[in-house]
Design a protein that fits this description.
Elements lengths: L10 H14 L3 H12 L7 H8 L1 H5 L3 H20 L1
Helix pairs in contact: 1-2
């Protein structure tokens, strides 16, 4: 949800912001939002996502079938090559 923030900035900073916005063909508000999003650290992850990052087995969830399939294909291809 978007919030409104009102701040007072010095004249020189306002002029620099206006010039940058014109150069980028953006509104001053968009320029400030981009600058803030680049400078502020990311928010902490929700508990479930953080748990997945910490647990090495949870990171593999959904990827095991690919490894098993690849092994089956490789082994059958290897056996087929040996039988020729």
């Amino acid at each position: 949800m978007a919030k409104t923030l009102t701040i007072q900035i010095p004249d020189d900073l306002e002029q620099a912001l206006t010039l940058q916005a014109q150069r980028l063909n953006k509104s001053p508000e968009d320029v400030v939002l981009e600058l803030l999003s680049r400078q502020l650290p990311p928010l902490p992850q929700p508990q479930a996502e953080a748990q997945i990052e910490e647990d090495p087995l949870l990171k593999l969830l959904g990827s095991i079938h690919l490894v098993v399939y690849q092994t089956i294909v490789d082994e059958s291809g290897f056996r087929e090559m040996l039988s020729k």
